[in-house]
Every structure is written in structure tokens, then in C-alpha cells.
## 1
Amino acid sequence: MKKRSLAFLLALVLACGLMLGGCSSDGSADVGESGSEGDGAADGERVLTIASPYAIGSLTPWISNSDGDRYVLGNVYEALIESNTGSEDGVEYVPAIAESWEYTDDTTLVFKIRENVYWQTEGNDLFDEKVQVTAHDVKAVFDFVLDENNASTEWGDLYPIIESVEATDDFTFTVRTKQPSAILLNEISGVLIFPIKAIEEDFDLTQQPVGTGAFIFSEYRVDDSVTLTPNPDYRVTPNVDKVVIEIVPDKAVAAIALQNGEVDIVPQILTTDLEAVAADEDLKLIPNSVGWYRYIGFNCSNEIFQDLRVRQAISMAIDFESITETLSGNDFGAQLAVDAYGGGVPPEFEGSDIEAWKAVYEYNPDRAQTLLEDAGWTKGSDGIYEKDGQKLSFAIKCPTNDQNRVKLGEMAATYLKTIGVDASAQPTEWATMTADIAAGNTEMFVMGGGSVVGGMNMLFHSVNTQGTSHNVFYTDETLDTMLEEAYATIDDDARIALLKEAAMRALENKVHAGGYFEYVQIGMNKRVTDFEKSPTLWYSLCNDYRNVGVDGQ
């Protein structure tokens, strides 16, 4: 009872701040069932409850700002193909709307569209009967996404690669590229297929997502929860009757809820909760197989950070090795983080060269102050650097849903203060923070991402970062060209060499101040089935290679 009482109190505190703004998908107030096992689940109903640390940024299928968006959208919509990160051979692409694909030459990729894919009919006013999805629908989506005016988050990834798209017949979709591409499949896996009819009829997909996926969007309570129900027209019958994604920014609260049986999956278990979760006979820990990149970025449109010497000084003044050790230290014996030494590519991906980055890494507060003084900054009577009447003062925004990233910002600010830089950590709600980064309403920020095939394109290409949560407003035509050349190189050894060169250039120009690769532990109730086959929430819980279920209900 004591443990449950603690969970109740913490959840109550959280609810007081979140539930006041709750509403259903049509914006009206709603005080119905929450969908969790202990609250609103009918007898015998198979409910899978996930505690997500991410608030919803956007439910528009061509605009996805965070993992939290994708946890929902990836179940309602499908792409042509999906990425199975649980494959023993590394990243493996598997069928989704497309049942097969082949290269007919180095620049032509042909997809065969399934003939049993239909737009969802339940829970929306867009379709009142089953309508088959064809290659023409797929082409319409790619035409939309490839139009810069539509502000798709996929545009920057696709436009440098794709020359043209064509629906050769009702079930054949052809992509032609400007040159060979080593990352085309990865970029295509990010394009969610949605009904263009919604655009033509001014139907709001943000309020009512309609796709072809295994689950129907049922309810959204703002900053509280999303409920998904099975799509009866999907080709595979889901092994659950309901999926509830609870938005729980406090990961300690989520861990307690997991131990109490109130949720089934927690994507990120804090270091302090590892031992308790591991000791619970009903639970298990699943290590993330890929290092998640966490970094401190600059807003290079800010006059302060346009000087490379200032960026170098800030990076050099922060002891990133000690920060990584502090954040990852645990009695559980797990390796939870690896220092990035200023580089941005996890060791599991092409272009990573941690030993080379370590060789040029330097924590040197004295040298940092010399660089600032070379750049024209001098210390005032209060010990803070100033120049032309402006103090060297700025905030480091940190997402409140990740205490490690908040701590990273706080420790970095402390190191900077010791040399005369007036830096402060500014914890910020996730959706607000990602929107601020995209719009340039930041000075410095702590962010994570890019741990995918083609991640350097996402993090460092000047076009791809625009309008995203990795927007550093840094332009380097040479770096852009290096990345484009690398990803157009089919030969593996040559491509890897080019990517390493590009990663080193980004490091030397201090696009990011520094960071680490985090190896999180996912907490899961043992009654959950088939999740480990591909331990990610990014793609659908039900498809042709996994069908996540719950036993014992």
C-alpha cells in the first residue's frame, strides 16, 4: 500500500497541472475513462498502456516534431516501408504499404503497393466506406511533401535526393533519384501516407488523424493521454483491444506506475530506478541497442555565437567527460552513456569515429578564457565577460521531460560561470522547447536525436535542420556538399570515409558544444508480448513483423 500511495500522490500532483487543459479530439471537455488498466478498462479488455515522457507537438502527419508525435502517428498511419531496429543484422527495412521493392538501376526504385490497404473508415467523417489505397494516392503524398510550400519536416531530407515520382499503374510506384543514394530507403520510411482528399476537402487531420494503420485515433486529452483502438479493416488483427499512451513527463512517476502495474511500458527508466525495476519479478529491462545522441546546441543566428572562437571557448570550458560520468554512474552495473567528445554519430552508425574525436577533445578553462579575450571579450568588475556593453549572458534551454538533459544544462552552466560566462539552465516544457528551437527562440539548448541512418543529414545539413528541433541556424556549404557526396556514394568504405570527414568538420566548427550517447533501459511488464522483436515505439505496434499484445487480462 505504501508504494501505491506514493504513486497516487505523485500522479495526483502531475494531474493537477495537466488535467485542467484536457479535451477530446474535437476540443470539447471530456471526463471519460482514461484507458489505463486500473481506470476504465472493461473486464477482459486487453489494454496496453504506455507512459510517454513526451508531450504531443503536432498530430499533422507531414509535420512531426518529436518521438511523442511519432508514437501516435506511427500507429495510425503507415509509410511505404518501416525500419526494424530489432534486426540482428542492424537496421532492416520491412514491408508496410509496399509489399516489395527493387532497384531497376542505381537511380530507380520501384515499389509494389499491396492490394489490401484501405483508408480507415471508423471514427472519422472523411470516409464512410472502404476506399482502396493505390499508387496514385502514394504519388499525391510525395508530391505534397516534395513541395517546399507545404513545410513538411521530410522535405529537407527528400528534395536533394528525389528527381521524380510516378504511379506507373494502380499498384506500382516509382521513385527516380538525382544520383545514387545510400539513404533513400531510410528517408522514404519517414514519409507517412495520408489521404490527399483531406487537403482537398479542408478536413483537419491534426484534430482527427486518418490513415491506413492498425489503430484508429480515438481520443486525445491534451497533455494527458491518447487512446487508440484497432482498425477492423487492417490486414493484421491487433493483439490488444486498446492502446493508451499516457503523457508522463516525470520519469520517476512513470517508473513507480510501472512497478504498480498501472502502465506496461516505460521508454526510459532513470538510473535511480533501475535497481527497483530489475528486482520486480513482474518486470524486465530491455536495453536500447543504439546510443541516443544528447547534445548542447548553439543558435548560430545569435550574434554571440557567430564567432567560432566563442563557440570553441564555450565547448572547451565544459568538462563533458565528467558530466557523462556523473549522469551515467550507477550501482546497477549498466553502461548508460558514452562520451561523444564533440562528435554527433553514435558508434552503431556510419561516420562515427570516437577515438579520433577523443584525440582532439580538450577541456581547458584557461584556454577558453584566452579565446574569449582574443574575440574581444573582457571581464567586467563583476567578473562576467562583456563586449561593447553587452554581457556574455545567455540561457541554455533544457527539456523538462528528461532530467538527465536538465542536469546536462545545469552542469554546463556551472562550468561556464566559473570562467566568467553568465549562463543559466532554463528548463522548458517539451512541445514549447521544440517549437522554440525550430523558430530560433533560443540561445543555447539541450536536445537529442539524429541516431538513425543518415543522422548527420538531420543534424548538420543546413537545409535539413531548418524548421526542426535541431535548428542551429548554421550554414556551411562545404559541409553540406560533403554530406551530399557521402550519401550519394554507394561504395561502403568510400562512404564511411567521407562521413567521418564530414563529422570531423562539424566537430571542428562547433556546430554543437558537445554531448554524449545515452543507452537507455526500457522498462516493461512481462505480460507484454512481441515488443522485444523490435523494441521501439517509433513504428506501429501491429504490422507484419510484430504484433504487440498483453497477456493475463
## 2
Amino acid sequence: MRELDTDRMYLSGVGPKRAELLKRELGINTLSDLIHLYPFRYIDRSGIQTVASVSGTNASIQIKGTVKSRTLYGPQSSIVPTDTEKIHFNAAKRLSVIVKDETGEMEMVFFKGIKWNWERLQPGRVFIFFGRPQEFNGRFNIVHPEVDVPQEGNMGQGVMTGVYPSTEKLRNSGITGKMMCRLQSAALSLCLPEITETLPQYVMNDNGLCPLPYAIKNIHFPTDGYALQKASYRLKFEELFLLQLSLLKQKFIRSRNENGIPMPKVGQDFNDCYNALPYRLTGAQQRVIKEIRSDLVSGRQMNRLLQGDVGSGKTMVAVLSCLIAIGNGYQTCIMAPTEVLAQQHFANISRYLIPTGVRCALLTGSSTAKERREIHSGLEDGSIGIIVGTHALLEDNVKFLRLGLAVIDEQHRFGVDQRARLWSKGPGVPPHVLVMTATPIPRTLAMTVYGDLDVSVIDEMPPGRKPVKTMQINPSRKVAMFRFIKDQIALGRQVFVVYPLIFESEKMDLENLEKGYEEIVERFPLEDGYKVAIVHGEQTPEQKNFNMDAFAAGRAQILVSTTVIEVGVDVPNASVMVIQSAQRFGLSQLHQLRGRVGRGADESYCILVKDYKVSKESQQRLDLMCSTQDGFEIAEEDMKMRGPGDLEGTQQSGMPISLNIASLSKDGLILNQAREYARKVLAGDPTLESKENAALVSELRKEKYNPKDYSKIS
């Protein structure tokens, strides 16, 4: 058996219990898994600081000092006697060690391993102490420093020390940062001789990549900054290159093998709808329709992602795309994740279709048996041209005569298995697919999550749409806020009040929502003519729809809710969005919520109510919200702050890719280089059949490089 495949349990210092923890906490089963767990940052331990130079700005320091004295403290800081024949270490709660250098003295504090550190840190001996300084009673100390004995020459400390992903459970079991470095060192000494090159030599030469064994060794224990840079670039480039190669190869094979329904005509219905529009389409909308039209006439199946900020006009593009399909004798469906959004789409689309003869229907879980029978009949005989619906469209008894185009809105909210059922409803040939999202996706993430789709972006807002005035306040200004809301309601406007719903504390959040509702009702009493509706996840669908409809129809002036209204609720008369505890929301979520207002002609406002104390990162988010309306700028910043895993609805489903070392938020330049080079490789050998690409084929077989295919609905 290869050393790389050896169970991590057999590594010195691990054993069965720690092995189970490593598997559970970090997914490490073998030595290969361990050496492919890379440091996420490095600490420079090349320098020694003096005690006098320590300040509160130091993230971590390294002191070389002589032990001057040691003291054991018990409860309430009582001193434990140490001049007796037997020291009662069980009575000690803390060990204080005073060390000195030529510039001053400093305290090292230990709450664990007290007996061991007492016996080791004897007065007069010299050690190197490393850790984070903190101020206590006007003096700096280090709690639980790493302690090393100075070595001759380089003092044996290593220039750069890697910091590895960890958890509290791992640290409590003794797998500290220092222990992880030891495990990596032991694993590398066993495995390095077995590491073979994974990339063809021509790829290495073209991109100036160092050999893989060199990269693996120096990513863990870099000899210097230059070696770390070379190792990091090699591993990041390889990861992103192979991922892009996999995606682009899938795209090539699909475009070659999967015939699409040819749709050469535009049709009268398209022209009638287009000519009756009360406004001109934006340049971005016209460009996207041309891109979609080009796909539909190509004879290949369309798999296109349509990105557009809230209110940019995606629905209009979807309707015109559907009318092209209808003009060629095919039916279309538009699938939305919620009943509210489906009903809204149906209302808007029906309005757009008035100048045409196209029949549109709505199918949701609430549709009656009679409505269902009529819809099923209309789909089977082809008289229904556009069907708008929710998951109800996936039911087995929903059959089409000729399904030619499927539009999927906010598609990340649908599971792959659910989408596969829609795929099979085409007339023997798969329907064209248009995926829409109102969540702006950073370009690097789109290239990776949706790497094998063609991407269209509506990056222009319709003329006349006013930006939403955004401001942040703390609770002390709530009274003024309520006065402002009353003024807006007096003008005939409506108001959203949104409370956070965080998974870990749903019960507490529901209590906050209910308290907030009581406060709003108290401030806006029924006897004064105010009506307040409430919507949250604990309600039945009937309750939710009733309250949402009351607000949408104008029967209630205020809607108090959780983030269920984040996507799709369209109430043009709503001019104020109040977001309570705004610091608890992510940037993209705040932007989506803000997009619920400003949909009419009136001046609109978004009020971010923050707690008195907020973290630096939260304040950065709120400041950015107040400074820009650009969803793509916000999405880029959000990814930089939070990483890509929580974006684009992937928090629930996990990222479709797993990156060991590359970062989509930081390595956009390498991603671009890797994608362009992958294109170049596939241009010369589209199916990677040549002998020199055998290594690439072998690597692409790994599960990591076969992400969920977000481009298909299968």
C-alpha cells in the first residue's frame, strides 16, 4: 500500500480518537488528505522582538527571554505554596511566568498544562515565546504562548509557520497549531517520495509552474517568501485550470452532441408585444434578446444564464423569448420558487400578452381541481402557450404537446432532481433553457459555478427609475423614523418592516419579530386607520398568502415580515423598506431587500436600523449599502468579506465546487489565466484524446473536478 493511502490514525501522535476527530472536523481520512490540507495564512517567525517594543498593534510576537520567576495561583488569585516538599498542582488555577530580556520583563500565563510548564520553565533557562500579546492591568502578557528552546544557527524556529484550519474540538483534543505542523512534517517525510507530477510538461513550461513535490513541500514549510509564492501559484493555477478545463470540456461536448430545437422565426406575437410596449427596451435588454435569439436559431440547445439586478427588466426579456418559441410552434414554461412570485409573474406576463393572442395559465399548489383539469387539457392540446408555475409543473400528470423553452427563475432554489423531471417533458429533444437570477454574481463565481453556461447580463436600469435613498440609524432615532413612516402613509405609500431570521436561533428571532409586530401595531393602531399585516415562516401557506395579498392589494399599509419577501414581491406602491438589526444581514441580502422598494414612480427609502454596538465588518457592509446601488459591486465586496460559499443561495446546498487552496474572491487574475489557457488546450484537443494529455484526463476523473452541472435542468 502507498504511504499516501495510509490511514491518518497510524501517524505518530494521532491514534484512534484523534483520527476520528480529524475525519469528522476536517474530512481527513488518509495521509494524502492531510498533506492536501493547506495553511490559510502564515506567521513570520524570522524575527525576535524586544519586550520594550511590544504594543497593542502586534498580531503576534516572538520574544527570546530568560525565566526570572514562576508563581502558581489558586482560586481568587491566592498563591499556591511552592517551597514545600510536595507542590499541590491540583489547587493551582493558573501559572504566571515572568521572563526578561535586556529591555524589560513580561508575563507568560498558562491555564492548562500547569505542572508540565512549571517543571520545564525553570528560572535561569532561556526560551523563545511566541503568541498574541494582550494588555492586562496596564502591562502586556501572552496567554498560552508557544514555547521553544533556542537552537544554534537559525534557532530552529522556521522562517514562516503555516496556520491550518481548525476547530475548538480539535484544539481541545490536543491538535493545536503546533501539533498540526508536526503532523504535516511527519506525513510529508513519508509521502513526498511518492508524489508524482499531475500536469503535462508542456502545461508546466507554458505557465512557468514549479514541480508538484516542490510546491507541496513549500506550501507547508516554505524556505522563504519566494518559495511560498511559487508553490502557491502552482497549486492555485492547477486547481483552477483543471476545474475550468472540466467545465469547458462539458460545454464543448454538449454543444456538439445535444441538438436543440431550431427556432428560425420571430413570429407575429413577438412583434405585436414588442410594438405595443409603452417604453423602449434598454440597450442591455436589446443586446440580451439578440444573444438569446442567436442561440434559438443555432440548432443547438440553449443553456443561458440571465443575470440582472432587481428591476432591470428580466421578466420582459423572458416574455419576448417565450414569444419567439411560440412563433415557431412551441410551448413555454416559467418556473418560480414560490407561489407569490409565480402569481406575480403571471399577473405581469398576462398584461404584456394583451396585444397578442397567446394564452397564459398559472399552475401552483393552490390551483383547484377544476383549474388543473383545464390547464392539463390546454397543455396537452397545445392551446396554452405560456404556463407559469411552481414545483406543481413537475408533477407527472403535467404533460406538454411541444415544450420548447423552459425559463427557471431564481434557479438555485430548485433541487437537481426536481429540475430533471422538467427536462424530460420536452418533445424528445430537450427544451432550450433560460436560467434567471436577480442575485448579482461576481464574475469569478459565475465563471466557476456557471462555467459551462453562456452568461448574459442586464447591466442597465430602465430610464426614470430613481435610486433608493439609503440611510442607517441606531434605535435612538426610532421615534423620528415612525413619524417619517406616518408621513409616507399619509401620502398613500406603503412600508415593509423586515426582521432577521437566522437559522441558529429561529425561536429567538420569531420572538423578536412578534415583539416588533406588537411595537408597530402600538405605534400604528387600527383605530387610527392603520392596518398591519405580518408574514413569517411559521405560518401556513394560506395565512402567508392572505397577508401578502392584503399588502399587495393595498388593504394593509405596513407589512412586518422575515426575509420571505426577499425575492420577487412586487408592490410598486411600497416606498419605504425598514430593515431591523441590519448588521445581521449579508450584503447581497440587504441589496435584495432594498430592491423591494423603488419599483414605482415615487421617491423611495431604505432605512437600516442597526444596534448600538456593531462589529467593524458589519459597519463596512452598512456603509457600502449607503454608498452604492450597484448590485455587482455589492456582490464583489460581499464575496471578499464572506467568501463565495454563502453567495447565490449556496449556503443551503453547498458550493458546487470544493477548492483546497484557490480563492474565488482573491484569485480572479489566476482564474482568468487558467480559463484562457484551458480554452487554448481544448482548441487543440477538444476531447483530450492525445497522448500528452493523458495526465489531464486522469486528473479530471477525480470527483472534485466534476461539479454539479448548474447549466442543465437534469
